[in-house]
Every structure is written in C-alpha cells, then in structure tokens.
Amino acid sequence: MPLAFLFPFSCMAIWAGNAIVSKLAVGVLSPAALAWSRWMVAAIILTPFLAHRAWQDRAKLRAGFYQLAALALLGMVLNQTFGYYAAQTLGATEIGLMMGLTPLMTVLLSIWLLRERPTWGALLGGVISILGLAILLGQGDPSRLITQGIHIGSVYMLLSAATYALYSVLLKKWDLGLDNWSMLYGQVLCSLLFLTPFYLLVDGQWPDGRALWLILYAGIPTSALSPWLWMQGIALLGASRTAIFMNLLPVMTAALAICWLGEKLTSYHLIGGGMTLLGVLLAQLLVQPVALRRRARVVLASCRED
C-alpha cells in the first residue's frame, strides 16, 4: 500500500498535539482530572463498537485480567499522568524530546526482560543519547546536574518514557490471545479502575467548559483513534518500520510548540535533543548483535598464533 506510511505519521501528529494539549491544560485542568477524563471519553466512544466483541472475549479477558491491569497501569495511567505532571513545569519541546527516548528504552528493556541479544546500535546509541540527555537536562551545561540536580518535571518525563517503554516490552512478552481492539478496550476499562479513585482523592472537581475541547482531543483522537492508526501501520509496514516513525514525535512536537505556544528553540535543544534522537535512531538501525565472546576468542587465537 503506497500510502501506508500515513497511518503511523498521523499517529505521531496526534501524539504531538497531545503534548500541546498538556501545556494548554495547565491552570485549566489538573493532571488527575485530565488523565481520568480522557479515558472516560475514550471508553464512552469505544463502548458501542467494542462492547459486544469484549463480551465474546470475556473468558480471555478474565483470564488475562492481571496482565491487562498491569499494562493499563503502565501505558495509560502512569505514562499519561507523569506526562501531565511534567507539563506543569516543562515546555512542550522538552516533553517531546524526552518522550523520544522511549524507543531506546524499549530496546534496552528488551535486552533485559526478553533476553534479546544486545546490538551495537543499542550500545552506541545509548551512550550518545545519555550524553545528549545530559546536555538537554543541564540546559547546555551538564555540570548543572551535579550542582543543581534534575528538575522535577524532567524526572516525571523520564518516568513517563520509561513506563511506556516497559509497557511496550510487556505487550510483546505477554500473549493473551486477544486481538488488538479487545486488548485496547480491556486496558481502557482497567485504567478507569485505577484513575477514578485517584481523581476523586486528588481533585474531585468536575471539569468546567473551558476544558471541554482539551478533554475531547485527549479522549477521541489521542486515546481512541491513534491506537488504531498505530496498529494499522504495524499491520501494513511491520513493527520495525513503524517504530522508526517514533523519531518524528520530538520534531513534530517542537514545531507545534513554536507555532502554537510561542516556544523558542535554543542551542541546547538542538545539540542535546539532536544527540538524543541520533542515539535513538542508531539503536533502531544498527541491529547487528554484539558478539563479544566470539571476538575475544578470535583475538586470543590470533595472539596464540603470533
């Protein structure tokens, strides 16, 4: 399909827009209220289409409830809530750049949890991304991380990226025998089980009219439509080729932040963010497995011959 790339491309554009919504919601809607209301809207939108399918799959959903709950907690509750709290103090540009670390974190967690062999891209990309992240977090001066520590918003954003990376790995590891739509719907319902008491305890205020369009954007295109676009991209392009489009997220977010929010790109954004994205890209493109033991045996054999 020649235009198959439009599916993941559109998904990234929607996610970038969600970073802008996160910033616009500051002072209008609390992170707890936004996290809860977006998944409530998604549940309302998806229920007419997926309730019957979920009923047919009820035995599988019941059997995989704990795994679905864990996935919902990571990918829909913690990931989004950490991101919304980060938006209280970080710019949308920083949010996009740090969320761009997710593919690299996914690769590194896959090595640990899925016992995948480390690749040269993961090792080299990891080092470059860490250096870039130090420049980004230190606002051009990595020594600030030692003298002043990491900004709380950056901590929230790193946790957001890490939880989504872990979510992606576990999604690959656990085979619950469900199709993608049933998996999504089950996770949406589980996320409400976690978020409803959190929202009532932390906020409990009904959102006012000013927040309506923010909630609708977060609930419909971001929560209900973008998963379908991403799944379509994987079905047509394959998981590896689709994952490459994650590298567009920081670029799209920065562009929207400049146009909509008036944010300005600085040298540390370009240098630190560029190094971070380069590391992520290398991790995805250089997939040759590391074979240190074999190389060591070759070197040892050549030494013996000499």
TrEMBL record:
<keyword id="KW-1003">Cell membrane</keyword>
<dbReference type="InterPro" id="IPR037185">
    <property type="entry name" value="EmrE-like"/>
</dbReference>
<feature type="transmembrane region" description="Helical">
    <location>
        <begin position="29"/>
        <end position="51"/>
    </location>
</feature>
<keyword id="KW-0472">Membrane</keyword>
<keyword id="KW-0812">Transmembrane</keyword>
<feature type="transmembrane region" description="Helical">
    <location>
        <begin position="268"/>
        <end position="287"/>
    </location>
</feature>
<feature type="transmembrane region" description="Helical">
    <location>
        <begin position="243"/>
        <end position="262"/>
    </location>
</feature>
<feature type="transmembrane region" description="Helical">
    <location>
        <begin position="63"/>
        <end position="83"/>
    </location>
</feature>
<dbReference type="InterPro" id="IPR051258">
    <property type="entry name" value="Diverse_Substrate_Transporter"/>
</dbReference>
<protein>
    <submittedName>
        <fullName>DMT family transporter</fullName>
    </submittedName>
</protein>
<dbReference type="Pfam" id="PF00892">
    <property type="entry name" value="EamA"/>
</dbReference>
<feature type="transmembrane region" description="Helical">
    <location>
        <begin position="95"/>
        <end position="114"/>
    </location>
</feature>
<feature type="transmembrane region" description="Helical">
    <location>
        <begin position="121"/>
        <end position="138"/>
    </location>
</feature>
<dbReference type="InterPro" id="IPR000620">
    <property type="entry name" value="EamA_dom"/>
</dbReference>
<keyword id="KW-1133">Transmembrane helix</keyword>
<feature type="domain" description="EamA">
    <location>
        <begin position="152"/>
        <end position="282"/>
    </location>
</feature>
<feature type="domain" description="EamA">
    <location>
        <begin position="6"/>
        <end position="137"/>
    </location>
</feature>
<feature type="transmembrane region" description="Helical">
    <location>
        <begin position="150"/>
        <end position="170"/>
    </location>
</feature>
<feature type="transmembrane region" description="Helical">
    <location>
        <begin position="212"/>
        <end position="231"/>
    </location>
</feature>
<feature type="transmembrane region" description="Helical">
    <location>
        <begin position="182"/>
        <end position="200"/>
    </location>
</feature>
